[in-house]
Amino acid sequence: MSNMKRKTINGMVWTVTERLSLQAVHMLISIVLARLLEPSEFGLVGMLAIFTSVAQSLLDSGFGSALIQKKNATQTDATSIFYFNLFVGILLAGILSLAAPLIADFYQQPTLIPLTRALSLSMVINAFGLVQLSLMNKNLEFKRHFSVSISAVILSGVAGIVAALSGLGVWSLVIQTLSHSLVRSILLWIFNKWRPTQHFSFSALKSMYSFGSKLLVAGLIETTFKNIYQTFIGKEYSATDLGYYSRASTIEQAATVATSMSLGRVIFPAFSPYQDDHKVLKQVFRKTIRLSMFLHIPLMMGLIAVADPLFRFLLTDKWGDSIPYFQLLCVVGLLYPIQVQNYNLFRIKGRSDLHLKLEIVKYMITAIAIALTYKSGITALLLGQIATAVISNSLNSFFVGKLIDYRLFEQLRDLIPSFLVALFMGFCVYLFGLLGIDSHLIMLILQITAAVVIYYLINKIIKSNELRELMAIITDLWNEFSVKLKGV
C-alpha cells in the first residue's frame, strides 16, 4: 500500500469512527426522546433553530478560526478573543430575550417567549469555551476534542431523557441543549489548561479581523440557508408539521453528513500536495468519487426502501407522517458526497473565489425554489430542494471538471453502474416490504439483509472495480489491525 493511500485510509478510519460513534450516541438519545415526546414539541424548538444558529455564528465572529490560522498567536490574542466572545455572548443573550415576543408573534406561538429566553443562556455558556476549543483544534488534539464531545452528548442526553420521563415536555429539549453547552464548556476548561489574563487588546482583534470577518459572513449565509426551510415550515404550517420534518431531516443527516464530512476532512490534507499534478489529482479524485458513491448511493436507496419499518420501529407509529419527508430528503442527500469532494477540490486548487461564486448561485436558486413552492405544501418544498441539489451539484461538477479535465459527462458515466445496481436493489427491497409481515423489526431485518446480499452479489457478478477496491481496503486494514493486535 502506498504511503499516501495508507495515510488517507488510516485518517479516514479514525475520523469516520469518531464521527459515527458520536452520531450513533446522539441518534440513540434522539430516538428515545422522540418516543417520549410529541412531534409538536420538537417543532417548537425547531422554530427557534434559525435564531439560535445565527446567534451562535455571530458569537464566534470568525475569531476562533483566525486564532487557529495565525502562526504566532500570542496569549494576548487568545485573551482578547475570550473577552470579546464573552461580551458578544451576553449581548446576544440580551437581544434574543428582548426579541422573544417578536419571535413568538412571527410564529403565533406564545410558548416561544420563555423557550427563547431560556435557550439564549446557551450563548453566554458557549462563550466561555470557544477559545479553549480553538486552541485544542490548533494543537490537533482531536482525541481530547472527541472525549469532550461524546461526554457532553451523553450527559446532556441523560438530562433530557430524565426531564422527559418527568413530564416536562418541550422543556426536556431545552434542558438537553443547555446542559450540553454547560458540560462542554466545563470539560473544555478541564482538558485545556489555557486561562485568560487581564491583557485585552483591540489591536490584537483588529489584526485578525480581516480573516475572521470573511468567515463570519460566509458562515452567516450558510447557517441562514441551512435553517431556512424549518423557518418557512414553522411559519406557514403547524408545529407538528415542523416536528415531522425536523425528525426526518435529523435521521437523514445522520446517514449522510457523518461519513461525507469525515471523508472530506481526510481528502483535503492528503491530496493537497498534488494540486499541481492534474493527472494524479484527476486519478485520485475520480477514484474517491466512485468509491464514496459506491457506498453512499445504495445507503440512500436502501433507506428510502426501508423507511416505513425503520420509523415505525424506532420512533413508533406517531411519527409515520415523517416517512415521506424522510424519503424525499434521502434523494436530496444522494449527491452530498459529490458536493463535499467538489468543495475540497476547489480548496486544493486554491479557487475559493470560484467556490464562493457557486455558493452564491446555489443560495439564489434556493431562494427561488422556496418562493415558488412554500405555499404548495411541505412536499413541494422538498421537491424544490431536490431540484436545487441537482442544479447546484451539476454546476459544481462542471467547473471542477474544467479544473482537472474530468468532464461532467465522464463523472456521470462513472456513477451510472452504481446507481443502476442500487436502484434495482432498492426496488427489490421495496417489494420485500409488501409481504405484509406485522413485526416492524422482522421486516426491517429482512429488508436490510436482502439489500446487502443483492447489492454485493450483483456487483460481484458484474466484477465491479469499486467492490474489488473496497474489499482490498478492508483486507489491508484487517491485516494492519491483526499485526498490531499480535504486537500487543
Question: What is the topological layout?
Answer:
Blueprint: H1 3-36, H2 39-47, H3 49-60, H4 63-69, H5 75-107, H6 112-119, H7 121-127, H8 130-138, H9 142-165, H10 171-191, H11 202-226, H12 228-236, H13 239-271, H14 278-314, H15 323-332, H16 336-348, H17 352-373, H18 378-404, H19 408-432, H20 440-461, H21 465-487
Helix pairs in contact: 1-9, 1-13, 2-12, 2-13, 3-5, 3-11, 4-8, 4-11, 5-6, 5-7, 7-10, 9-10, 13-14, 13-15, 13-16, 14-15, 14-16, 14-19, 14-20, 14-21, 15-18, 16-18, 17-18, 19-20
Describe the structure.
This protein has 2 domains: 1-21 and 228-488, no CATH class; 37-226, no CATH class. The chain has 488 residues and is mainly alpha-helical. The radius of gyration is 23 Å and the shape is globular. The chain has helices at residues 3-36, 39-47, 49-60, 63-69, 75-107, 112-119, 121-127, 130-138, 142-165, 171-191, 202-226, 228-236, 239-271, 278-314, 323-332, 336-348, 352-373, 378-404, 408-432, 440-461, 465-487. It starts with a helix and ends with a helix.
Structural class by secondary-structure content = mainly alpha
- What is the succession of H and E elements? HHHHHHHHHHHHHHHHHHHHH
Low-confidence sequence ranges: 264-275
**Distance from first to last alpha carbon:** 23 Å
Characterize the main sheet.
none
